[in-house]
Design a protein that fits this description.
This protein is mainly α. 62% of the residues lie in helices and 4% in strands. Strands 4-3-5-7-6 form a five-stranded mixed β-sheet. The chain is globular. The chain starts with a helix and ends with a helix.
């Protein structure tokens, strides 16, 4: 009985972390930022970022993550309840069913794919790299290190996983199970705020907005998608990562909790440009900070939005004939300060992440621009045509707010064309452009549909076509890659700490988890499995070069140097050391030097071999270290500090 009560308490505490951190922020602010109906969705959007900030404070105070989780759950829940009671009437919920229906339709194929394909859920795209980051959150307040390169700080974004990690701990389940329902909920809330932003532009809260705004979201790459399925041999053009736009929600990707924050930012932008709405200005800064903190690669897009709105507030007083809100000078100055702070927080985080990395990470590439313009047209052909229509109407009506929205949506597309970043991460600008443009397009389509039944029927028809095309595009991966994860090891998703389920050959990894210190460094050879995650120990250097690994499609060299930007000299030097540790022949002098090199790390060393290793044989002959696992295929030896002196006797 006590076990059941503890499980129930854990799930209740986990549920509180979905809303309570964000509610505390929204209710604690003196200004009423949102209508009561928007408070709960906004709290859900902001909670991952608020909880991440709380984790940073706790880590600096030396609080272990296992202690932080229950304390944060209790403190946030109590704080949210107290503030809600002190400010009655601030919370309500009113989401029209006509909005919920199209949102659910686009979520259904995501739910089906995640539910029917466990390996897709566990290994989709780079899930194992995200799991490695979550394991480092579990180890706080120890400074996070990269599991693929022991001793180097974790340069890949990880703070955004705080909420998922905390919920996994509280419910004693794997993060791979937690992210799936969270991603679906984040997709639904994203659609909600796109619709709310469309309401601001439209001026009325109409049922048709749900279909029109959702169609605008689905239209990204729609013609490209339909051509692909009508003509099977058609060569796809455009940015596949945003065609369809909800494909990211199939993966354990930090973009998923950040995208609703961008939608909230788009909603705040709409309010702040339609009327003099100071609370919306504060919300604009808060949501931009939240999106950038959860997923730092959205920072440039947020900078574009905040900068464009700042120019808008400066220009507005000089064009009195245009419909533009006029903010007071003190409000403009306050906005500039708030925007600077909201950007400084994620900038400081990015600076910390990049402490062990090299530069540059981006450059202008005008030579690729013509081809990229064609690709961009394949993705945004409908959106840009609609934006042109809106711009003409707005210019005729002297509507500065709508023109600003069009300008931002177009401006966010330009970096995709002219900026080159390794592995095409510049496509993040396209997501921001889409979320700024979709409310404008949805509002314009809704206005158009009010003129007659035929117009409404046309929108519903194209929405149905877009929904089917979207579902086909999401499911096409399985058709084209039926054996993608055939040899991948399943995770035991019943536990918070990931490892292969019973029946798979994870015995040596289990021995490392259970019989070595938490700070041990693992030396192991090339593998197509995420050994660092399963063993829960940082590897000296990941060794796979020529083939992709399950959980991530890049070889180790591409991940360490291309994605994470670690110095190539360090990875090459360590790979040379690892090759000697696994070599079949080695002199005594080389073995002694090798041991001294490894001991210079100042941490316990775990050597895993799958074939005869001269270094392992030398260690055993000299009585150095302890054998902790032996099977027909694997050997594992633990070497503690100070053992090199044994070799000289």
């Amino acid at each position: 009985m006590s076990g059941s009560i503890a499980e129930i308490a854990g799930f209740v505490a986990a549920a509180s972390l979905l809303l309570a951190p964000g509610l505390i922020l929204l209710l604690a602010l003196p200004s009423k930022l949102l209508a009561p109906r928007d408070m709960l969705p906004a709290a859900f959007v902001l909670s991952p970022a608020v909880l991440a900030v709380e984790l940073v404070v706790a880590a600096f105070a030396g609080v272990p993550f296992d202690l932080f989780v229950p304390a944060a759950a209790a403190a946030n829940a109590v704080g949210a309840v107290v503030l809600a009671r002190r400010r009655p009437g601030r919370i309500a919920f009113d989401c029209p069913l006509a909005w919920l229906f199209p949102a659910v339709l686009i979520a259904v194929p995501v739910v089906a794919e995640l539910a029917l394909d466990p390996l897709r859920r566990a290994y989709g795209w780079h899930n194992m790299m995200q799991m490695a980051a979550i394991l480092e959150i579990y180890a706080l307040p120890r400074p996070p290190e990269d599991l693929q390169l022991a001793g180097f700080r974790l340069s890949y974004a990880w703070l955004g996983w705080t909420q998922v990690a905390a919920i996994a701990k509280l419910t004693a389940t794997s993060p791979t199970l937690v992210f799936a329902p969270l991603n679906v909920a984040q997709l639904l809330v994203l659609v909600y705020f796109v619709c709310e932003a469309a309401v601001v532009y439209c001026g009325r809260r109409l049922a048709m907005i749900g279909v029109a705004a959702t169609f605008a979201l689905l239209s990204a790459g729609l013609l490209n998608i339909l051509a692909r399925f009508v003509i099977w041999s058609f060569t796809a053009h455009g940015e596949l990562k945003i065609s369809p736009f909800d494909s990211k929600f199939l993966n354990m990707d930090l973009m998923c909790p950040a995208l609703p924050a961008l939608a909230l930012m788009s909603y705040a932008l709409a309010r702040a440009t339609r009327a003099r709405d100071v609370p919306a200005v504060w919300l604009l800064c808060i949501s931009a900070c939240a999106a950038s903190l959860v997923y730092p690669l959205f920072l440039p897009s947020c900078l574009v939005v905040l900068g464009a709105f700042g120019l808008f507030t400066l220009v507005a007083p000089f064009v009195p004939s245009w419909t533009m809100p006029r903010y007071r000078p003190t409000e403009v100055v306050a906005y500039a300060a708030a925007a600077a702070v909201s950007l400084a927080i994620p900038v400081a985080y990015i600076w910390y992440l990049g402490g062990d990395t090299t530069e540059p990470v981006a450059w202008l590439n005008l030579a690729r621009a013509p081809r990229r313009v064609v690709h961009l047209g394949a993705v945004f052909c409908f959106i840009d045509a609609a934006l042109l229509w809106i711009a003409v109407v707005a210019w005729q009506a002297r509507d500065g707010g709508k023109l600003l929205g069009v300008g931002i949506a177009v401006a966010l597309q330009i970096p995709f064309v002219i900026i080159s970043m390794l592995y095409a991460v510049e496509y993040k600008f396209l997501f921001a452009a889409l979320l700024v443009a979709a409310p404008l397009v949805g509002a314009q389509l809704t206005d158009w549909s009010q003129s007659g039944l035929l117009h409404r029927a046309a929108i519903v028809t194209v929405f149905a076509i877009a929904t089917v095309g979207n579902a086909l595009a999401l499911m096409s991966w399985r058709w084209h890659h039926p054996a993608e994860y055939a040899r991948a090891k399943l995770l035991d998703e019943a536990t918070a700490e990931p490892h292969p389920i019973a029946g798979w050959s994870g015995a040596w990894q289990r021995s490392v988890r259970e019989e070595t210190p938490a700070d041990a460094v693992l030396l192991t050879g090339p593998s197509d499995q995420p050994d660092a995650v399963f063993a829960m120990r940082a590897v000296y250097v990941c060794a796979t070069e020529d083939e992709g690994r399950y959980g991530y499609s890049l070889p180790c060299g591409g991940e360490l140097q291309g994605v994470k930007r670690f110095p190539p000299t360090q990875t090459l030097r360590r790979k040379a050391v690892l090759e000697k540790a696994l070599a079949a022949t080695l002199t005594d002098a080389e073995a002694a030097t090798l041991l001294e090199t490894l001991e210079a790390l100042g941490r316990p060393i775990v050597l895993h071999t799958t074939s005869p290793s001269a270094f392992e044989a030398w260690l055993e002959a000299n009585g150095i270290g302890t054998s902790i696992f032996v099977s027909e295929t694997d050997k594992v030896r633990l070497i503690v500090r100070g053992t090199s002196s044994q070799a000289s006797r």
